[in-house]
Amino acid sequence: MSYSEQLLDAIERQDFSQEKILLKKALDSDEPEILASLAENLVGLGFTDLAKEVYRSLIARFPKEDLFKIYLAEILLNDGKDEDALTLLYGVKPDSAAYLDSLLVQADYYQSNGLLETAYKKLLEAAKISPDEDVVKFGLAELDYLSGRYEQALSRYQDLLKRHKTFSEVNLNDRLFQTLAKLGRYEEASRVISQNGNEILDIDSKYQAALVMLAVHKDEQAIIYLNEVIDQSPDYVNAYRLLVDAYEQQHNNEQELRSAQAGIAYNELDPVLYKKGAQAALRMNDFKTAEELLQKGIKFLPENIALRIQLSNLYVKENKDEENIALFKQLDDEDLEPQVHWNLAISYQNLDQSAKAKSEFLLAYPEFKDNSAFLKQMIRFFNTEPNAKEIVKELLEKYLKLEPEDTEMQEMYDNLNFK
């Protein structure tokens, strides 16, 4: 048994008392091939410090064997010693048999550090050396995808799929449908998904598949993928919003509401879930649940005016005028949107607070002067106010241009002129 084998056997038995001695004897006595195998096994077992000593010894004995430099460089990169590693990698000359391997390690390093264009250049150089090397083609495809060169990525993935279904643990059909989707070719993407759906195991790919299926109105399939995503990872918060959209497309109010409520349990800061959950509840005439959702949304998102307006609309519908007014008490008037002024006008009118109602109607008017529903409410309010004949007349003229068939308003206008 070689000293290298004795060292590995001791490590397997977790006997570390002789590791330094055995390593020295291995370096002094074992054949280079055995030492190379030892270093590889040590890396696999996580004993990279020992592996580094072996590779350094081999490099000292065989300075022209560049593969040992590359293996050592990979360990150094994992240890965060980038400068030392790059010195070794750049020391491998273009005429070396290991130059391609050096370029691949460099490309991986630059990509992992966000220097995509530098990584791409390294791979293009590698492609010139070995144009049929699939690992190079895959690396270029990945960088094309990440850099938004989707047509080039598509061509490379299609070529790789002629020979592989997966590459470096990446499902190439996943990449294919996602690239097609990026190009807006959703029908083609959905066909790839349908043909290979059982092979989509990655949770992010399932989410992307659901997006594609929604885009081509295959809502049932989208729902299946989204539920699988949530089953795998209940805190995958983006899936809930998409699931709500899918059930909305199906007009399934009950499931839409449940999905929104489930999503809020994991993300209390998503305004869309509050909004759509409340809308679904209202379509089922469940005003209480809609109120509770919107009140909770405002509690966690007090700056979200849209949720306040949605709750305000509900309060107006329920004639909860005091609650509606209280909803905006703490906000400055200049921060209020026209819809808020309209809603407040209605509530103040219902509470017989005419001066405030008048002010709110006038503040809302510039935005809604061409809205027949608003004008009709404003007309009815001012028609009960003293000395407002001319205002009512002007409002009626604008209204009747929008709704000339409204006989009630026409009659009111005629009566004003007759007087």
UniProtKB/TrEMBL annotation:
Keyword Repeat in annotation: yes
Name recorded for this polypeptide: Tetratricopeptide repeat protein
Keyword hit for Repeat: yes
Recorded coiled-coil stretches: none
Organism: Lactobacillus helsingborgensis
Keywords associated with the record: Repeat, TPR repeat
